[in-house]
């Protein structure tokens, strides 16, 4: 199994090198192969992660890392397939070869950095991994070189870098806390810090935790550090938006969870849970309100990501094992649902040549396959049964009601319902409401031809929906074991 | 009576104070070129502090770190940014809504808050007086003010780089023993970030023909 871990850490990087130098067709094939094989490796590693974990050199896989690697690998696989269809539409344009090379190399590097960030052992290496995800994704946001894209990329790189500067300060303070127990020469290994537990000095650990939540939380899109997120998600090319939302936010939240584990072991559960609860509720509240009044379909989905990161923070803040297991299931389900929704929105935006919700009407008539798929994807995202997000949110709320923070569970239900309303209304309008009105015809909606995108862009959505049904109806036994083990690690049960 | 501080404590504290003063000078200056030069001076001071700590407290890894940070932060980064400035043909930093005097007052408040808050943490260091930690946090605070009040890409980037200097200063106080490989990785990461910042500054300049960020208001809501 150790070999699979190494494959996971090496293969996407090999794809980076190949796709940067080879012709676009080869780069495309490498990217798809690397995405699919990485997903295969991540799935094959689930049993090992669920039952004891693995360690090879500076790579370490425990249940928590297993969940996030699986999410990142899934999004990598589906977006690499989607990207084939996405880029095909631009083929033949001037400068395409250069663009495609950059795009494929960037996509592979982005996926590689996210998976490595989850697999490395140690808070310092984790910081380095997350920093690499930032620089790569900032370049990918700017890749279309439009004015909006460069504005979004600048805001993103500045805010995320400053956030990571704060996270670096947190890392250093955590090193100081550890050095009081282990002496100077240790490498911030997570295992060691968890072993030290209550022997770590409390004040520095608290400080490091708050700095990490603010720092990594900036990248995870927690309010009030979320301001870069809607811009970057809306302006990036669709496959990149799907990766940003489905896996990058989760990986940043993974970093927060690592600090949560250490803080919980050192100062007890109350303080770290309160901090997460505060940021989580703020994110949920603001995002639910923004979702209600959005004019741009990609920004709508971006604010929905802020909401889902809020749900994760609140779920872990409850401190109940059921809610923690629900949070980890939510990571997987959100990865599948959000990448699906972005891929669907990408098809709509390309067909109508706009992201304005009010100008996309009657999609069902023009896109008889992909428009209903988009609608189902948004409903899955908004937590309708039988999809995975319904199950995860149900677990989170049930766990919350059973904990000492039942009141916040009620707030969670109210805000999630509000966001549901916003998402469902906007998506239904775009897909179901016909475009026959004179005002819309004057906007050019009627002139849009009936043309489904290639199957390269539809198949990944179908795969995502299948995964969501599987997660919602009957998660495999190994996966359930993985989630249970991960929740135990978050609850202080795992070492 | 309080004990007289040692020469070592005096020297290191003096260097840390100078680091903070250069941060204020960056906030004060209107010329982009001077801002970058002040950043180079600040980086030089941080490197010098690393050498002093390495020599007196016998932490040989810090020599390597100081050399690397000297090469990177005193030479490479300022050179890259100055080259960009030459190409962009811009000189004056974009001023925000505050006057320089108000900016400095706000920065004094933020810096002071950082400096005195650290006192409450009771962090003790083997290698440096804790005063330096307070100063490091003040540098971070003032760099935030710099990024917020200035409205051009160069000032904002230099603000971020100097924030990193503040973090480096803090790491000298509380994490001087951090394994060298990690320190090198942090610096390498900074270099990558600088390249990306530089690239995006160029993209911004080529799109808008200015370094100002005042027009970056299309995306909202």
From TrEMBL, chain A:
Domain NADH:quinone oxidoreductase/Mrp antiporter transmembrane: start-end pairs: 123-419
Compartments, record wording: Cell membrane; Membrane
Keyword Transmembrane helix: yes
Signal peptide, first to last residue: none
Parts of the chain that traverse the membrane: 63-87, 107-130, 156-186, 207-228, 240-260, 272-291, 311-333, 367-388, 408-432, 453-473
Keywords, comma-separated and alphabetical: Cell membrane, Membrane, Oxidoreductase, Transmembrane, Transmembrane helix
Source superkingdom: Bacteria
InterPro entries xrefs: ComplexI-like_HydComp (IPR052175), ND/Mrp_TM (IPR001750)
Membrane topology designation: Multi-pass membrane protein
UniProt-recorded name of the protein: NADH dehydrogenase FAD-containing subunit
Native source organism of the sequence: Streptantibioticus parmotrematis
UniProtKB/TrEMBL annotation, chain B:
Subcellular localization: Cell membrane
Regions crossing the membrane: 6-26, 38-56, 62-85, 97-118, 130-149, 184-203
Keyword field contains Transmembrane: yes
Protein name listed in UniProt: Hydrogenase
Broad class of where this protein is predominantly found: membrane
Keywords: Cell membrane, Membrane, Transmembrane, Transmembrane helix
Species: Streptantibioticus parmotrematis
Superkingdom, natural source: Bacteria
The keyword Transmembrane is annotated on this UniProt entry: yes
Membrane topology qualifier: Multi-pass membrane protein
Coiled-coil segments on the chain, per record: none
């Amino acid at each position: 199994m150790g070999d699979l871990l190494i494959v996971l850490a090496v293969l996407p990087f090999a794809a980076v090198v190949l796709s940067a130098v080879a012709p676009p067709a080869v780069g495309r094939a490498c990217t798809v192969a690397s995405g699919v094989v990485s997903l295969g490796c991540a799935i094959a590693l689930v049993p090992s992660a669920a039952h004891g974990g693995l360690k090879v050199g500076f790579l370490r896989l425990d249940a928590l890392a297993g969940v996030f690697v699986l999410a990142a690998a899934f999004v990598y696989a589906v977006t690499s397939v989607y990207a084939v269809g996405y880029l095909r539409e631009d083929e033949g344009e001037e400068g395409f070869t250069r663009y495609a090379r950059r795009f494929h190399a960037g996509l592979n590097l982005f996926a590689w950095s996210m998976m490595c960030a989850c697999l490395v052992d140690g808070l310092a290496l984790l910081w380095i991994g997350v920093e690499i995800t930032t620089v790569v994704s900032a370049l990918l946001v700017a890749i279309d070189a439009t004015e909006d894209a460069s504005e979004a990329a600048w805001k993103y790189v500045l805010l995320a870098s400053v956030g990571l500067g704060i996270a670096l300060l947190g890392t250093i303070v955590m090193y100081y806390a550890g050095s009081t127990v282990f002496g100077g020469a240790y490498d911030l290994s997570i295992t060691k810090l968890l072993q030290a537990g209550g022997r770590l000095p409390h004040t520095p650990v608290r400080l490091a935790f708050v700095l990490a939540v603010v720092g990594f939380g900036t990248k995870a899109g927690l309010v009030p550090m979320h301001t870069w997120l809607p811009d970057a998600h809306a302006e990036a090319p669709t496959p990149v938006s799907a990766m940003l939302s489905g896996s990058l936010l989760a990986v940043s939240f993974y970093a927060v969870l690592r600090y949560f584990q250490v803080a919980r072991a050192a100062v007890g559960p109350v303080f770290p849970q309160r901090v997460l609860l505060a940021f989580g509720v703020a994110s949920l509240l603001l995002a639910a309100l923004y979702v209600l009044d959005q004019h741009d379909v990609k920004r709508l989905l971006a604010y929905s990501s802020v909401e889902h990161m809020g749900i994760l923070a609140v779920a872990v803040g409850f401190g109940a094992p059921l809610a923690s297991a629900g949070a980890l299931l939510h990571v997987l389900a959100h990865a599948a649902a959000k990448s699906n929704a972005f891929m669907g929105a990408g098809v709509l935006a390309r067909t109508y040549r706009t992201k304005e919700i009010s100008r996309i009407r009657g999609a069902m008539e023009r896109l008889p396959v992909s428009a209903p798929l988009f609608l189902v994807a948004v409903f899955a995202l908004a937590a309708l049964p039988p999809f995975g997000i319904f199950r995860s949110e149900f677990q989170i709320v049930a766990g919350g009601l059973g904990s000492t923070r039942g009141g916040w569970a009620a707030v969670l239900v109210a805000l999630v319902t509000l966001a549901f309303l916003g998402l469902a209304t906007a998506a239904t309008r775009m897909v179901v409401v016909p475009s026959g009105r004179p005002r819309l015809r004057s906007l050019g909606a009627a002139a849009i031809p009936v043309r489904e995108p290639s199957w390269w862009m539809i198949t990944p959505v179908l795969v995502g929906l299948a995964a969501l049904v599987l997660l919602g109806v009957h998660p495999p036994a190994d996966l359930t074991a993985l989630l249970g083990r991960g929740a135990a690690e978050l609850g202080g049960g795992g070492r | 009576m309080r004990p007289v501080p040692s020469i070592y404590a005096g020297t290191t504290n003096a260097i840390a104070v100078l680091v903070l003063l250069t941060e204020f000078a960056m906030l004060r200056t209107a010329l982009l070129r001077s801002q970058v030069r002040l950043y180079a001076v600040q980086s030089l001071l941080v490197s010098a502090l690393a050498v002093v700590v390495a020599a007196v407290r016998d932490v040989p890894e810090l020599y390597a770190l100081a050399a690397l940070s000297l090469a990177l932060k005193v030479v490479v980064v300022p050179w890259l940014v100055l080259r960009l400035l030459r190409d962009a043909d811009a000189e004056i930093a974009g001023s925000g809504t505050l006057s320089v005097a108000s900016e400095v007052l706000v920065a004094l408040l933020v810096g002071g808050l950082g400096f005195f808050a650290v006192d409450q943490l009771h962090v003790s260091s083997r290698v440096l007086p804790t005063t330096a930690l307070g100063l490091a946090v003040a540098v971070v605070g003032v760099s935030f003010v710099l990024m917020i009040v200035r409205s051009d890409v160069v000032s904002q980037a230099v603000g971020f780089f100097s924030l990193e200097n503040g973090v480096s200063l803090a790491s000298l106080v509380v994490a001087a023993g951090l394994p060298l490989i990690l320190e090198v990785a942090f610096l390498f990461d900074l270099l990558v970030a600088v390249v990306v910042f530089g690239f995006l500054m160029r993209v911004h300049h080529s799109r808008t023909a200015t370094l100002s960020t005042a027009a970056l208001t299309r995306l909202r809501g």
